[in-house]
């Protein structure tokens, strides 16, 4: 298929286009940066594990005694955990690579509505699945988008739909699996610590993971659904379109970069004599995150609202500027665009 | 770095040797220029075979349309399966050569929203969300509306179909190419993860009262036109690689420094191995248990498409191509070039390419087993551990060979594997 699909589908594989070619410009002892990253990323995985546990508890509480209050709490806990995942989603190496865990948490993009169909299959089954069954099933039914379907899809709009035994059983099984995945990630990240800290090449891998996230925010999470990437606007291409929370997720990704990516990046740039560049990047990141935080939570509903659409375009431009700074950083650190085997249609 | 199923070893550091001066090759070794020239010969022969097989397919389709029946339909289907053999091998030339990559969308675009073309089951069809063309049904309608635009499609010509490809900006709107033809020959596969493929009856092409599913004349016209278009598209590509032409892609490629040719060769091998075949065509389908992500989903010929993709990668490296007529084309190879620099790495990569063919051979054997065939869509069923193992082994072999392709690039002085900088100015 043509080149457009390249960008469109890259994210499913989490492939990056930056390669460390030639001698890196950062010093041998980037171990300090890695130590900071290991700590700050570990903190974020711990938060994800906690939020997953809370979500699972909330699912049980709702199913035990479904009422409006518990339902509201469940939706909040779902969003909290989904946001906790966004904050650490930029890490595309280490334990997250096992068993397609990134897809397990969030199968996206899902242009053919696999999530909806896999969830429907379970809703129409004779008995709800166990956590173990979900763990062996399609990645499309294992993550936040599957729960989003149960909580927000129009098929679930009938009063009491979620409280029905089959739906509630599925809700609890998927939440339980998500909690397990979060706990495993937090644990495995700690076990991964020595190897990460001792392996020089993870410095480049971490930098490119952070910068790649900005590119994918710009190209896939905004330009594609907004219709700024060549094809017409299509709200279904946004993440979290069912709940209209796309912008909240973007905001959390930016917050995660602030908390977990900057701590190692700063000393790296300082060593290269680029403190100012680090300051500029940090300031732009903060401003962009604040901007996102002030915006309406969804993306698709804003496509038909000129004012909200212009906000989204503004955010898109801001993230583009961040990406540009990211490319300056990559150049400064000796990262060049290189072998990109991620083409695909 | 750890974990075997990582689908991105290529982004890792390329061990850089100093850019190898081309004069470093002794005169009795093959030269990079010879290798790149032979690569163009390989491409030419592969596309020639793809054209020959497409012409046969076109003839079988004419037979089918002249006398629709089980036999003529079976013969057309068989010709389609044959046509995939050389075409899939040509995919190793796709990434890296813009002339191929920019062109192939009209031939092999996938996955498709087949409701654009013809009837689909109302309760068993999932199209791309938000795709305005997903149920346009060109066979049943002489005018269609997409994105507020009304289009006259009364006459189904090759030109019209080419214009309709990716209409409305959706890549799922595939109006042309192998998979459109596949759909018109087989129809939707309604069997999910179970045995069985598309069951389109030959009577879908009968006229008058015998016509099933309506609009048989237009369906026949569509199939006729789309098959003609495939032939003319392949003719064009053969001409791009033909020797002794003044103004074609081959000339442009050979006018570049040989290092650029080597880059395109290696980039094509790595991209097809990893991102495309291991990733898009196998891992996505398996991890999501998604028959929508099966490559040849109507015919269940996916195992062959995968097998011959990998064969194409091996061809580029070994410089050998077994032609449709059974003869073998061979010449100065990338393998020989690498062996002169690093015999050990050449031996490793050669055996890894063999190992990949063995794994995909297993997949092919399982799918073609006479007693109890397990096709790709059965392998990806939830809980099918044997099927998952077959696919995972193939993915792992492809990931492994890609790591060596990357090393080979470094050894041969190819440091910048991307065809362009994709807008990055650093």
TrEMBL record, chain A:
Keywords from the UniProt entry: Signal
tRNA processing among keywords: no
UniProt keyword Signal, yes or no: yes
One GO CC term, this protein: cell envelope
Domain Imelysin-like: 43-319
Signal peptide: 1-27
CDD domains membership: Imelysin-like_IPPA
Database matches in InterPro entries: Imelysin-like, Imelysin-like_IPPA, Imelysin_sf
Cellular localization per UniProt: Cell envelope
Broad class of where this protein is predominantly found: other
UniProt-recorded name of the protein: Imelysin-like domain-containing protein
Origin species: Halomonas organivorans
Automatic annotation (TrEMBL), chain B:
InterPro entries assigned: Imelysin-like, Imelysin_sf
Signal peptide stretch: 1-26
Cellular location(s): Cell envelope
Chief subcellular location: other
Record key words, sorted: Signal
Pfam hit, one: Peptidase_M75
CDD domains the record matches: Imelysin_IrpA-like
Protein name as catalogued: Putative iron-regulated protein
Species annotation: Halomonas organivorans
Lineage per the UniProt record: Bacteria, Pseudomonadati, Pseudomonadota, Gammaproteobacteria, Oceanospirillales
């Amino acid at each position: 298929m043509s080149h457009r699909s390249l960008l469109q589908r890259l994210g499913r594989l989490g492939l990056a286009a930056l390669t460390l070619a030639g001698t890196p410009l950062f010093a041998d002892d980037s171990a300090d940066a890695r130590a900071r990253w290991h700590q700050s990323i570990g903190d974020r995985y711990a938060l994800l594990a906690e939020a997953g546990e809370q979500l699972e508890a909330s699912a049980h509480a709702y199913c035990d005694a479904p009422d409006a209050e518990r339902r509201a709490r469940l939706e909040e806990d779902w969003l909290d955990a989904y946001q906790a995942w966004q904050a650490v989603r930029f890490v595309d190496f280490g334990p997250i690579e096992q068993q397609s865990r990134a897809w397990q948490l969030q199968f996206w993009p899902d242009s053919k509505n696999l999530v909806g169909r896999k969830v429907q299959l379970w809703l129409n089954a004779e008995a709800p699945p166990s956590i173990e069954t979900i763990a062996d099933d399609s990645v499309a039914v294992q993550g936040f988008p599957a729960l989003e379907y149960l909580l927000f899809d129009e098929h679930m709009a009938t009063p009491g739909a979620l409280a029905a035994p089959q739906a509630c059983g599925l809700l609890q099984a998927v939440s339980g699996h998500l909690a397990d995945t979060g706990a495993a990630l937090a644990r495995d990240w700690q076990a991964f610590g020595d190897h990460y800290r001792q392996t020089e090449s993870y410095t480049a891998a971490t930098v490119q993971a952070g910068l790649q996230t900005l590119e994918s925010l710009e190209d896939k999470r905004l330009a594609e659904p907004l219709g700024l990437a060549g094809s017409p606007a299509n709200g279904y291409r946004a993440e979290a379109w069912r709940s209209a929370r796309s912008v909240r997720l973007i905001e959390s990704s930016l917050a995660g970069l602030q908390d977990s990516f900057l701590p190692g990046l700063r000393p790296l740039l300082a060593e290269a004599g680029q403190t100012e560049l680090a300051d500029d990047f940090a300031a732009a990141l903060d401003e962009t995150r604040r901007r996102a935080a002030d915006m309406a939570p969804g993306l698709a509903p804003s496509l038909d609202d000129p004012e909200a659409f212009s906000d989204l375009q503004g955010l898109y431009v801001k993230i583009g500027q961040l990406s540009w700074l990211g490319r300056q950083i990559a150049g400064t650190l000796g990262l060049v665009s290189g072998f990109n085997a991620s083409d695909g249609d | 770095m750890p974990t075997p199923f990582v689908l991105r070893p290529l982004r890792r550091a390329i061990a850089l040797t100093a850019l190898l001066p081309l004069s470093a090759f002794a005169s009795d070794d093959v030269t990079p220029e010879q290798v790149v020239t032979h690569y163009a010969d390989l491409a030419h022969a592969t596309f020639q075979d793809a054209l020959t097989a497409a012409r046969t397919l076109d003839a079988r389709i004419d037979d089918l349309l002249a006398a629709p029946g089980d036999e003529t339909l079976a013969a057309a289907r068989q010709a389609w399966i044959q046509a995939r053999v050389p075409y899939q091998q040509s995919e190793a030339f796709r990434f890296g050569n813009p002339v191929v990559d920019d062109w192939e969308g009209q031939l092999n675009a996938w996955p498709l929203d087949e409701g654009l073309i013809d009837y689909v089951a109302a309760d068993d069809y999932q199209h791309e969300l938000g795709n305005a063309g997903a149920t346009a049904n060109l066979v049943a309608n002489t005018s269609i509306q997409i994105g507020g635009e009304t289009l006259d499609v009364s006459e189904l010509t090759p030109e019209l179909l080419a214009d309709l490809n990716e209409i409305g900006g959706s890549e799922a709107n595939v109006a042309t190419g192998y998979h459109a033809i596949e759909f018109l020959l087989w129809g939707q596969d309604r069997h999910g993860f179970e045995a069985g493929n598309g069951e389109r009856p030959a009577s879908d092409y009968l006229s008058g009262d015998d016509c099933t599913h309506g609009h048989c004349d237009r369906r026949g016209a569509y199939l006729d036109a789309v098959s003609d278009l495939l032939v003319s598209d392949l003719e064009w590509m053969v001409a791009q690689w033909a020797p002794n032409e003044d103004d074609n892609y081959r000339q442009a490629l050979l006018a570049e420094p040989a290092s650029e040719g080597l880059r395109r060769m290696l980039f094509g091998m790595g991209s097809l191995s990893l991102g495309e075949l291991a990733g898009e065509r196998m891992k996505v389908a398996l991890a999501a248990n998604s028959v929508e992500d099966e490559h040849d989903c109507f015919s269940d010929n996916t195992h062959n498409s995968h097998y011959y993709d990998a064969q194409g990668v091996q061809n580029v490296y070994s410089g050998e191509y077994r032609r449709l007529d059974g003869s073998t084309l061979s010449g100065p190879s990338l393998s020989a070039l690498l062996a002169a620099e690093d015999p050990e790495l050449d031996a490793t990569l050669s055996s890894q390419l063999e190992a990949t063919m063995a794994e995909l051979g297993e997949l092919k054997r399982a799918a073609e087993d006479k007693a109890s065939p397990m096709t790709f869509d059965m392998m990806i069923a939830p809980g099918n551990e044997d099927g998952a193992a077959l696919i995972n082994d193939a993915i792992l072999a492809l990931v492994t060979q890609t790591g060596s392709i990357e090393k080979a690039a470094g050894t041969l002085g190819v440091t910048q594997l991307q065809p362009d900088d994709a807008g990055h100015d650093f």
